[in-house]
Amino acid sequence: QKEVEQNSGPLSVPEGAIASLNCTYSDRGSQSFFWYRQYSGKSPELIMSIYSNGDKEDGRFTAQLNKASQYVSLLIRDSQPSDSATYLCAVIPSGTSYGKLTFGQGTILTVHP
Amino acid sequence: NAGVMQNPRHLVRRRGQEARLRCSPMKGHSHVYWYRQLPEEGLKFMVYLQKENIIDESGMPKERFSAEFPKEGPSILRIQQVVRGDSAAYFCASSIQDNEQFFGPGTRLTVL
């Protein structure tokens, strides 16, 4: 079992729709979770961090965390073609007092006009 | 307000040569991380450093790879005697403490 797994994708949504990206993790003690966006040939860009169960909203983005289910998701509302990228879920494993990120393999999102 | 800086952005080496990758963290950030992204693979942690200290190098190959973050100057990731399998994108990230990490533009290493 991979430490961090993301829905395989690629995911294609029409412009204006909600894109839903999912991530599960195996380390039950993990406390810190992040979503990064990576455009082709570019570096990862931090979108959201979430540490507590529930929802966290920032503009069109909402991160959802459910530690009991070991599940974290990212919703993108009113998707735009510029949102087309690879989305990376990252987790800091338990027992680590610093940011040693473990990444999922990424989900490719395409938003078509 | 400069972000994380890496240079060179592209580096071409022949097999057996040395590669030196440099990373200057964001201003005020004292934690530096190096990650590697192989073609068609995910990002993998390599090493975590603070000034003059290697805190965790568990993700770094035991041979040929080394990293440092001196008191003055950038962090350096050094790869000796490069092989074709070292061709990848190498990203540096920095943070204030064990918080959100911000990534530099990366160095794309190509080994001929």
Would you give an account of this structure?
In chain A, 0% of the residues lie in helices and 53% in strands. By secondary structure, chain A is an all-beta fold. In chain A, strands 2, 4, 5, 9, 10 and 11 form a 6-stranded mixed sheet that branches. In chain A, a hairpin with a 2-residue loop joins strand 6 (54-58) and strand 7. Chain A is globular, with a radius of gyration of 13 Å. The mean pLDDT of chain A is 94. In chain B, the strands form 2 sheets. In chain B, strands 2, 4, 5, 6, 9, 10 and 11 form a 7-stranded mixed sheet that branches. In chain B, strands 1-3-8-7 form a 4-stranded antiparallel sheet, with no helix packed on it. Chain B has 112 residues and is mainly beta. The mean pLDDT of chain B is 94. In chain B, 0% of the residues lie in helices and 50% in strands. Chain A binds chain B through residues 32, 34, 36, 42-46, 49, 88, 90, 92, 96-106, and chain B through 31, 33, 35, 41-45, 48, 55-56, 91, 93, 95, 97-106.
Features:
heterodimer; A: 113 residues; mainly beta; 6-stranded mixed β-sheet; 5-stranded antiparallel β-sheet; B: mainly beta; 4-stranded antiparallel β-sheet
Characterize the largest beta sheet of chain A: strand count, sense, and whether it forms a barrel.
6 strands, mixed
Share in β-strands of chain B: over 45%
Percent strand of chain A equals over 45%
Number of helices of chain B: 0
Unreliable spans of chain B:
none
Q: List how many beta strands of chain A DSSP finds.
A: 11
| Class of secondary structure makeup of chain A | mainly beta
Helical amount of chain B:
under 10%
Mean pLDDT of chain A: 94
Overall shape of chain B: it is globular
* Class by alpha and beta content of chain B: mainly beta
Q: Which spans of chain A have pLDDT < 50 for at least 5 consecutive residues?
A: none
